[in-house]
Amino acid sequence: MPMYDYECPSCGDFTDLRPMVECRMPQPCPACATPSPRVMRTAPAFSTVSAATRKAHGTNERSADRPKLLSEGGHKHGPNCGCGSGSKNSRTVARGADGSKAFPTARPWMISH
After folding, report:
1. Which of 26, 42, 49, 51 has the fewest Cβ atoms within 10 angstroms?
2. In whole angstroms, what is the distance from residue 102 CA to residue 113 CA?
3. Is residue 63 domain-resident?
């Protein structure tokens, strides 16, 4: 989140972290709560946070107003459902001479349906 400079008419300059969407809106002064306009004293500075924290904040912002719907695309089943649609590790099928299916990567002791 970038840091912006603001100027309170009675207290003077102060700096605050604000979302970029709200950069043009007046910020209340921390001392007297007077709405103060943004001033350009220096170039905006970004606080340094880890990539994991940025990703977490982005996920929270995306899910703040509504959850992702299944109709918006993507895989419709749960993780590791085994249907093979869109998965990287879909199962290989080997066919015998009589047309029977064999799964060479499957566990031989499991009974399939």
Report:
1. 51
2. 13
3. no
50, two tokens: 């880890």
Return d(Cα 15, Cα 110) in angstroms, integer.
64
Encoded tokens for 46: 């970004």
Asked if 100 contacts 112 with a C-beta cutoff of 8 angstroms, the reply is no
Number of residues that this document lists for the chain: 113
Q: How many domains does the chain have?
A: 1
Please check whether residue 22 lies inside any domain of the structure. yes
Please indicate, yes or no, if residue 65 is contained in any of the structural domains: no
Expressed as residue numbers, the domain containing 12 is 3-36
Q: Which residues, 6+ apart, have CB-to-CB distance to 76 below 8 Å?
A: 70, 85
Task: Name residue, tokens 């400079």.
Answer: 5
